[in-house]
Structures are given as structure tokens and as C-alpha cells.
User: Which sequence fits this backbone?
């Protein structure tokens, strides 16, 4: 990648949208983005493994550029391709299943104009997910809560709604293209931005609406295989265990409490005296996350909040499992292999092409 100098004192924005499947949400994404554009901005759509002909109707719209990968290459490759042809000073990455507000781009520009030391910003999902099924509401609202209660001085990037100065992005070589599946390519970029001395701001007022329909199986697959395992591996590799976003110390404490309660629960089948400690630990787990459940109660009512609890505890469970797997794998690699990482099954899984 080669850097391009800004051609105007007015900060311009290139909105880069990778798309793998055409959906109604994608149409809404494009329409909402067009409404937010200023005359100096552009939209770059990168078709990842889909026929360009199906996007021909968009080529007639002003300020829209369409690029393509002939085969599915993953969001990192698609976003880098878009960045290479971008004319804007700011690269604004969004997913194809989100919509923005008419003033979203103006808000993005205002942050970069008013805080010149900031190299990148990330936003948040809003608190009104489009899909109404329980899993979708739970997942998206939890994501909203996590971002809205996290440190504004961020340590990671977010590709669903994240903007970065083009010069900073180019200086780091863009996204890591090893991630063929949507995974933690944005988080990994954030780590490199911070390591290079760049500052990332979490702007809680910049929010997008998410249209993704979550199912239970998709939730487990995405959270465990595509997020928890590779993110834990990234933390171990960099030896950076953050106290922010999904990785707050309170969440780690909850993981410990959950597994401790499971151990005590098993023991209580043989030793009855362990029933009370199990109940106490579960009570501590419940009260330590009271703020989370209060948020859900406020947004969707008591019954919804009660339904959230087992799903939230399940999240702690597979997060703990992911941590254990990565630690064991890392230990085995360092013990038996001269080049740690080359045999990692997590990395190999994420490098496999997406199966239709």
C-alpha cells in the first residue's frame, strides 16, 4: 500500500462496505449511507465472491464505486481492496447489515476535526436491534451495553462501525488478510494501531442499527470459534490482557465464579455440605452482574432479563473453555514445536474458505 496525500483541507470520507451476500439489510445499509454522504464523500462497495452484475444497479448512483473479489477472500482482503482505491482522508468501515443515521458521517468528521491526536474511532450498535427474536435482541443489546459502559480511550478497532485516518491505516499495511472468515481481523488491527502509538476513541454517540438475525447455533459458533478462541490467542501472543469491553476484570471474575460453582456442584453430589457454598457462589455470580441484568430489565422488562441470565452464564462458560484451550495449545506448541503458531488449529480453521 502507498499513502495518498489529502487533496483538500476539508476532511473527506470513504465509506467501505464489504458484502458477501445480497440481503434486504444490504439495501437498507446503502440507502442510509447515501443519505449521510456529503458531496466530498464516497461509498466503496467490495463484492466478496459475488457476481458484479447483481450490483450493476448501484453503479449508476453518484458517489458509489464497486469493486470485486472473484472468490470469497474474507472481510480483511475486501476492506483492504476498498482502502486501496479510496480517495477519502478517512476510511469509514461498516458492515453490510447495519444502517447509519443521516448525521453519522458528520459526527465522525467532527471527532477527527476536534481531536487531532485521534487516529481511529469506533462506535456502537444502537439499543433497537432490527430483528425481534430473543437471541438477536440479547446479542445485540449486550454488545450495545458493553460498548456504552466501556472506556472511551479504546484499545481495539471495530469493523462494523469504525473509522481510521487513511495514513495511519496504510502505514500499518491495513487488515491482516489471514482471516478468511469474519473473525477478529478488526481487533488485531486495533492492537497494531495501539502498539504503533496511535490513539483510538470509542464514541458512544455514534451508533448503527444491526439487522443480523442470530440463532442459538450461530451465536455459539461465532462467539466461540470465531471470537473467543482467536481473541484469547491474540491476547496470549501479545501478552496483553485488557480490562475493557468484553475483557473487563469483572467478566474474568464471573468466569472464575461460574467454574468454581460447577466444581462445587459436582462435589455436592457426594458431599452434601457443598450445596450451600455452591448456592453462595451462584448468588455472587448473579449479584456481580446485577448491572447487566438491570440494563436488560430497563430495556425489555423483567421476564426478558430473567431469560438473559442462563445465556449470559453460558457466555462465561465458553469464554472460560476458550481460555483453557488456548493456554494448553500454547504450552504444547512451546514444548513440542520449534515454531509456535504454525500448528495452531484455531489459525488453521480461520484460514479455511467460507463454506456455502
Assistant:
Amino acid at each position: 500500500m502507498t499513502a495518498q496525500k489529502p487533496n483538500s483541507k476539508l476532511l473527506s470520507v470513504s465509506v467501505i462496505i464489504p458484502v458477501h451476500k445480497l440481503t434486504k439489510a444490504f439495501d437498507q445499509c446503502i440507502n442510509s449511507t447515501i443519505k449521510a454522504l456529503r458531496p466530498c464523500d464516497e461509498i466503496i462497495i467490495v463484492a466478496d465472491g459475488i457476481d458484479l452484475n447483481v450490483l450493476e444497479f448501484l453503479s449508476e448512483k453518484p458517489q458509489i464505486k464497486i469493486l470485486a473479489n472473484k472468490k470469497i477472500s474474507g472481510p480483511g482482503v475486501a476492506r483492504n481492496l476498498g482502502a486501496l482505491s479510496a480517495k477519502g482522508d478517512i476510511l469509514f468501515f461498516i458492515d453490510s447489515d447495519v444502517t447509519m443515521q443521516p448525521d453519522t458521517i458528520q459526527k465522525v468528521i467532527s471527532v477527527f476535526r476536534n481531536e487531532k491526536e485521534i487516529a481511529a474511532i469506533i462506535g456502537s450498535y444502537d439499543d433497537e436491534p432490527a430483528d425481534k427474536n430473543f437471541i438477536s435482541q440479547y446479542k445485540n443489546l449486550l454488545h450495545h451495553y458493553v460498548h456504552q459502559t466501556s472506556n472511551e480511550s479504546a484499545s481495539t478497532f471495530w469493523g462494523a462501525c469504525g473509522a481510521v485516518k487513511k495514513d495511519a491505516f496504510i502505514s500499518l499495511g491495513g487488515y491482516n488478510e489471514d482471516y478468511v472468515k469474519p473473525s477478529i481481523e478488526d481487533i488485531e488491527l486495533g492492537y497494531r494501531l495501539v502498539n504503533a502509538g496511535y490513539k483510538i476513541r470509542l464514541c458512544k454517540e455514534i451508533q448503527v442499527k444491526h439487522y443480523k438475525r442470530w440463532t442459538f447455533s450461530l451465536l455459539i459458533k461465532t462467539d466461540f470459534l470465531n471470537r473467543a478462541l482467536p481473541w484469547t490467542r491474540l491476547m496470549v501472543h501479545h501478552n496483553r490482557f485488557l480490562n475493557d469491553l468484553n475483557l473487563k476484570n469483572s467478566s474474568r471474575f464471573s468466569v472464575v465464579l461460574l467454574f468454581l460453582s460447577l466444581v462445587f456442584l459436582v462435589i455436592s453430589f457426594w458431599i452434601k455440605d457443598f450445596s450451600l457454598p455452591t448456592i453462595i457462589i451462584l448468588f455472587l455470580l448473579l449479584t456481580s452482574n446485577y448491572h447487566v441484568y438491570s440494563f436488560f430489565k430497563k430495556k425489555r422488562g423483567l421476564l426478558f432479563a430473567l431469560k438473559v441470565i442462563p445465556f449470559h452464564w453460558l457466555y462465561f462458560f465458553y469464554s472460560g473453555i476458550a481460555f483453557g484451550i488456548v493456554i494448553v495449545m500454547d504450552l504444547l506448541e512451546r514444548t513440542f514445536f520449534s515454531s509456535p503458531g504454525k500448528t495452531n488449529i484455531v489459525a488453521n480453521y480461520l484460514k479455511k474458505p467460507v463454506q456455502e
Remarks:
- The longest helix spans residues 302-336.
- The chain has two domains: 13-213, 245-351.
- The CA atoms of residues 180 and 352 lie 6 Å apart.
